[in-house]
Amino acid sequence: MISFHWYGFLIGVAILSALQVSIVYAKRVGIKKELIEKAFWWVLVGGIIGARAYHVVDLWQEYYRFNYLKSLFLWEGGLGIWGAIIGGIVGLLLFCRLNKKGFSKLIDIAVIGVPLGQAIGRLGNWVNGELYGKNGEPLFAWEAGLNLLLFIFLWRIGKKEKATGKIAGSYLIGYGLIRILLENLRPEEIIWKWQGVPVAIIFGIFAVFIGGTILRKRKLS
User: Fold this and answer.
1) pLDDT in tens, 61-93
2) What's the pLDDT at 220?
3) Quick one: how far is CA 207 from the chain centroid?
């Protein structure tokens, strides 16, 4: 009997939704659909590798060092969004380097649909019974809602701006703040920490800093 994995299905819907948004925005700024589709595969592979690596490193000592093969079972859940972001950026950088394309324009196109994909992807946490707060708060729903608001904000920027880095910078600031806001509401036992500080908050602070730097440089240029 073939089993249906809702988590994997929702992640697939999330990825395709983000891609479609990127294609629509690319057309608006004069970039061909074919280029976006080629870049997409680099971003997707980099994002999946990064997302899974983040999760496996997080739970290596407690689980994966005893279950090596489970590291490959993506359908069981376990994808770290910060790993996906970093892996996706690396994938796009490699694509741009090998194809001699401008990174600054393509990063805005790649990023604009990401928070919509994240909002849909958080429903995967719901079907897996994951991402509840210390007191049972539905953090998956809270983050999904905040990601949806971030997407609307980025889309409004995209209506006024061409791809110049403002969307990418705004996304990093927005999502960094979302994670900083929500991370401490998670149960202590599932929070990955480094030197007593949640790793997701460390990444969130870096994201806000990098996003702010991008916007500041854009304003000065």
Assistant:
1) 666 666 766 666 666 656 788 899 999 999 999
2) 61
3) 12
20, amino acid identity: Q
Using alpha carbons only, what angle is made at residue 55 by residues 131 and 155, rounded to the nearest 5 degrees? 65
What is the per-residue pLDDT for 184?
Answer: 85
Whole-model pTM: value is: 0.87
Question: How far apart are alpha carbons 79 and 74 in whole angstroms?
Answer: 8
CB 108 within 8 A of CB 155: no
Burial 98-108 (b: 16+ CB within 10 A, else e): eeeeebebbbb
Residue 74, classified by CB atoms within 10 Å of its CB into exposed (0-12), middle (13-18) or buried (19+), is middle
Question: What type of residue is 63?
Answer: Y
- Looking at 4-18, 26-40, 149-163, 197-211, which range is the least confident one? 4-18
Terminal CA-to-CA distance of the chain, rounded, Å?
60
Return the CA Rg of the chain.
17
In this structure, the number of other CB atoms found within 10 A of the CB of residue 115 comes to: 26
Q: In DSSP terms, which residues pair with 197 in a beta bridge?
A: 194
